[in-house]
Amino acid sequence: MAWLYLFVAGLFEVGWAIGLKYTHGFSRLLPTVFTLASMAISLGLLGLALKSLPVGTAYAVWTGIGTIGTAILGIALLGEPAGALRLACIGLIVAGIVGLKLVSP
Length: 105
Known about the structure:
The chain is about 85% helix and about 0% strand. The protein is mostly helical. The termini are close together.
């Protein structure tokens, strides 16, 4: 169950990272509320996952999911570049997450 909490926490990290862009410096109410709620949910779920997962592994996976999701949504929603080298680097982060999952409880 801890890995499920961690995965969902990572998805909410993506939500607040992308949400930050839409808050326009916390000057827009709805995006700000969404962003703050996503932050709270993400951290809460990370805390639950840390009950049984090592902190180094959980934190690395959480930030990795956030990094991958934010980069992909940046490409899809915000028109950020999607060059081959950038996509290869995202693939390396995915490989690191899979590796940590394989060697962790």
